[in-house]
Specification:
25% strand, alpha/beta, elongated
């Protein structure tokens, strides 16, 4: 009987520790939720700021992604359609397609990747890039664009490759990695890409991509799960211990 009660006490200690661990994990997720909401508030505030004008002057030297991300930028330069980048496998409302990323030359030394939008492609790759560009006369004209600066995506496992679209070759990436794209360009890039937010007015131009919306993430749901595990463990342990204690007491009186 002593051994039985000793085992019961050991089980009770383990169960209490498990309950405390689950509760601690739930509290940790709530702390992460608070941090995420604070970060989302800062992002929303930056998105509301007036657009910042950038050109290809020397003041771009040393500009960091942190200082530009989630800011609205107004840029003046010329499109570099010959070095357009295709991001494969990007669906829009259930339709397969690609994202079209065109470098915008800000000067002789600087450029920025501009996500001009989405084009349909049945295989998620073979899009009509030529039809989404201005005529030959308008390609070298200086343009002014406005968009939202965003941090680049992490390089995927799919390696970059070069494919022919129409009569020209273009870099194809699995994600909008600024580092991977920069290897094919003869000028420096800003450490962010710009999501175009105003239509270009060109016939056949890519459809604008929706701006990302800051969210709370899954932390609240994870917290609820961990607290539920804690309550289930605590309730189940109480019921089990009560049953075992009564059984042990009955054996002792017999």
């Amino acid at each position: 009987m002593r051994e039985s009660r000793a085992g019961l006490w050991a089980f009770l200690v383990v169960a209490v520790l498990g309950t405390a661990l689950f509760a601690r994990l739930g509290a940790w997720q709530l702390a992460r939720l608070a941090d995420r909401r604070a970060e989302s508030g800062q992002v929303a505030a930056r998105m509301q700021l007036p657009p910042t004008a950038l050109d290809g002057s020397g003041r771009l030297e040393g500009v960091s992604a942190d200082s530009l991300a989630w800011r609205r930028l107004r840029l003046r330069g010329t499109w570099d359609f010959e070095r357009e980048v295709v991001i494969r496998g990007r669906a829009s409302r259930g339709t397969p397609g690609v994202h079209v990323v065109t470098p915008l030359r800000l000067g002789p030394r600087w450029g920025v990747l501009v996500l001009r939008g989405w084009l349909p492609a049945a295989d998620g790759l073979s899009a009509d890039l030529a039809g989404a560009r201005p005529g030959q006369r308008g390609r070298d004209a200086e343009v002014e664009v406005e968009g939202l600066a965003l941090a680049g995506e992490a390089p995927p496992r799919i390696p970059p490759r070069t494919l022919t679209f129409g009569s020209t070759e273009h870099l194809v990436l699995g994600a909008l990695s600024i580092g991977q794209a920069s290897g094919s360009l003869p000028y420096d890039l800003l450490p962010v890409f710009v999501l175009l937010t105003e239509p270009s007015g060109l016939a056949g131009a890519p459809s604008l991509v929706d701006e990302p919306i800051p969210s709370d993430g899954p932390h609240l749901w994870y917290a609820v799960q961990w607290f539920a595990f804690a309550l289930i463990t605590l309730g189940g342990t109480a019921a089990y211990v009560r049953t075992r204690w009564r059984s042990t007491s009955s054996e002792g009186r017999a």
